[in-house]
Amino acid sequence: MAKLHFHYSTMNAGKSTLLLQAAHNYKERGMETFLLTAEFDNRAGAGIIASRIGISEPATLYNKESDLFQLTERRVQQSQFSCMLNGYPMSRSGSWFVLLMTLIYL
């Protein structure tokens, strides 16, 4: 059964660093991760999740018209992954429910 972990905090609290550390830990164990970031969040460049300490990873872009279930299903067909991490608050795109349903599906 999939789990949904929600981390929130003020700006400069290390949320992106925590996400990138989790992705690194999965990869270190030989497990794939599926990283997502909002299209409008291009502070580090389009499709990049970055931390102020200088680490970054490429991520799949989504926007308010994106079908996260379809994006996830397509990614599962390419290769199985162990963890799905989102680098931007999805509440701004109104897609929390879809993400939750996607995680349950996996």
Give the arrangement of secondary structure elements:
Elements: H1 15-28, E1 33-38, E2 48-50, E3 56-58, E4 60-62, H2 68-78, E5 83-86, H3 96-105
Parallel strand pairs: 1-4, 1-5
Antiparallel strand pairs: 2-3
Written description of the protein model:
This protein has 106 residues and is α/β, with parallel strands linked by helices. The chain has one domain (15-105). Helix content is 33%, strand content 18%. It has three helices and five strands. The protein has helices at 15-28, 68-78, 96-105; strands at 33-38, 48-50, 56-58, 60-62, 83-86. A three-stranded parallel sheet has the order 4-1-5. It has a two-stranded antiparallel ribbon with strand order 2-3. A hairpin with a 5-residue loop joins strand 2 and strand 3 (56-58). Helix 2 (68-78) runs parallel beside helix 3. It is globular and about 35 Å long. The model is unreliable at 90-106 (pLDDT under 50).
